[in-house]
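User: My notes are a mess, but here's the protein and adenosine-5'-triphosphate's SMILES. Can you give me a structure?
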Amino acid sequence: MPAFAASMAAALVAQLIALTIPQVLQQIVDGPLADGDASAVVPLALLVFGLGATEALLYALRRWLVVGPGTKVEARMRNALYAKLQDLPVSFHDRWPSGQLLSRAVSDLGLIRRWLSFGLVLTGANLVIIGVGVGILMSMNWMLGLIFLVCSLPLWWAGWRFEGRYSEKSRLSQDQQGDLATAVEESVHGIRVLKAFGRGKHALSSFRAQAESLRRTEIEKARLDANIWVWIMVVPTVALALCLVVGVWLAANGQLTVGELVAFFATAAVLAWPIESIGFMLAFALDARTATDRFFDILDSENTIVDPAEPKHDERPRGELAFSNVHFRYQDSPDRFGDLLDGVELVVEPGETMALVGLTGSGKTTMTALTTRLYDVTGGSVELDGVDVRAFTREELRRHIAMAFEDATLFSASVRDNVLLGRPELAGDEPAVQAEAERVLDEALRIAQAGFAYDLPEGVDTKVGEEGMSLSGGQRQRLALARAVAAKPAVLVLDDPLSALDVATEARVEAELRSVLADTTALIVAHRPSTVMLADRVALLEAGRVTAVGTHSELLRESEHYRFVISSLEDDERRHGGGDADEASESMREEAAS
Ligand SMILES: Nc1ncnc2c1ncn2[C@@H]1O[C@H](COP(=O)(O)OP(=O)(O)OP(=O)(O)O)[C@@H](O)[C@H]1O
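Assistant: No problem, the inputs look usable. Here's the predicted complex:
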């Protein structure tokens, strides 16, 4: 604030100095020039030079004062936005396209910074100068001042009309820019699919259509801007022309000296730029207001998944995971549908590996997401060691329960950093910490059968690129699994994270998981018979409830729906090239038994 105030003061003083120059001119015209005393002009001319130089210096000072604070405000707003995006629940991100968030974080905040350090300062200073300048004009000659003032009234009227229309277009344009960013992001992200299906041209034409809408909005904005410019250019000129006629008549009648007339027009000339800039500044301020609104759309979004006021704490839970009469429905789910999860009851004992099976779309992924509060239950509770997961802070809960997903996201960082993401305490430089980090990394990579990481060009320090694109799907999944394992959780929730592995590798991963993480509870969404067979018990999700829990063979014997689900999983496996699934399953059964 002090820097902005000082900058505005510098701009103000610079313009006030500009307003004093006409007064000196009046002295020159009415004094030395009228008297024919050329020598007396020199000190007054030097004074004009001095005033001009000071004005220039003050303008430079104005810029210099706000550069630092302007960028600081921008950086702080960007950090606040990023922190908020991290904090907001997954349901928020389901609703908001990434391009809209991106355009807010980048272009909107850049616009706000430019307005704060340039628009705000100049608008403030210009408004004061227009007020002071018109006051000076009135004091020089009230009649001329009044003509100038009355003639400018249409300008305020045009400005007021402009404001309403321009705001609307400004919002539309910035939202369309966000949509465009989403389109670019999606097509870059999905470039392989677009190319594989030869849909590049289609994507281009839909992108063109979006770009065209944005262009049309920009043209409408420019048209509105052009309209206000007409008023801004014509009104002062008409006012000056009228003043000139009346001024010359007053001078001819001896009611005004020539010096005063010169000073009047020189003052009006100084006011020309502040008046002309009104339209530009108004448009700029409206764009900045829209950008600010869009920023606060996010910042004011209510987070429905928050930490409790008095959180419970458990240093090392045993790992009993229980679903107790759990109900859940997505916010945007139509009313005609019942709850997706409709009274789920399930207890996974400490150290047990429980497979979760069900038809596609039955809600398995949703059920796993409730364990770490990616979504909150809409009824009932999920409990860790008998304590509602909502009673822990989210940070603690996510330390106790780690997740790995089918869609393995890796960040643009080294293998090491990706795998140790959930262990920030291992990031230190001390030798003991580094040795422990190395040990955890080794163990996690071994369990996840991700030894290939050591053969990468720079070993575990290899950067795996945007979303690990340079790795195969199976390699990415194994690193994501290693990440979940390295977090040393009490409960491991795996949402089909082994789908891209061949059956034999999957069996090795699960065998390692069992031996090394014997005291870790695991809930695994299974899409393959092989995964099911390696679990201690299996839970069957059907019509929003867990309708059967038991070993694979018990369920095969007792549940017709289970037999149906397993046979459809086997069909899937055969269709996806897993022709030897049965054989592999057989050998794994033996391995598991041994
Ligand atoms: N973010 C969401 N918003 C609204 N509905 C959703 C959302 N995610 C999933 N759904 C819906 O909820 C239902 C269950 O989805 P879920 O992903 O939990 O099923 P699943 O059993 O894991 O399926 P699959 O075996 O195919 O992975 C589906 O009908 C899906 O369309």
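The two ends are 72 Å apart (CA to CA).
User: Great, I'll file this with my notes.
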